[in-house]
């Protein structure tokens, strides 16, 4: 494992580490990769919700007078008709809603999409680097195991 000092982390050659320590490092990286992958997945899900909302706002422009189903609960709907498509209520988080024009709502969703895209772009390189390091650890572990096996074969024949 890399030790840290006041100057920061120091690098250690993987081939110098024993197998149990490499295995421990791999397990730690597996957990970090899982967490980063889940984070990216959640960001992409949130991003898709904003993309869908932005598309719904675009389609709403031509829908005045259209019959719709209005949700009263998660499984209860009543028929309704769109009266005004000039303004919409936008869920801005934690149960708060803001009245916005269609253009304002579209801009809001676009800002959210761009923000989430930037967050994904920040996390993605870290995930790629963790995968690269994990693969290097696996390669080193395989080489060490092969080396141990080949050194045991001549000893077993003797």
Automatic annotation (TrEMBL):
SUPFAM superfamilies: Prefoldin. GO terms for cellular component: cytoplasm; prefoldin complex. The keyword Chaperone applies. One of its GO terms (biological process) is RNA polymerase III assembly. InterPro entries: PFD_alpha_archaea, Prefoldin, Prefoldin_subunit_alpha. The lineage of its organism: Eukaryota, Metazoa, Cnidaria, Anthozoa, Octocorallia. CDD domains: Prefoldin_5 (cd23157). It comes from the Eukaryota. Coiled coil: none annotated. This is Prefoldin subunit 5-like. The keyword Glycoprotein does not apply. Belongs to the prefoldin subunit alpha family. PANTHER family: PREFOLDIN SUBUNIT 5. One of its GO terms (molecular function) is unfolded protein binding. Keywords: Chaperone. It comes from Paramuricea clavata.
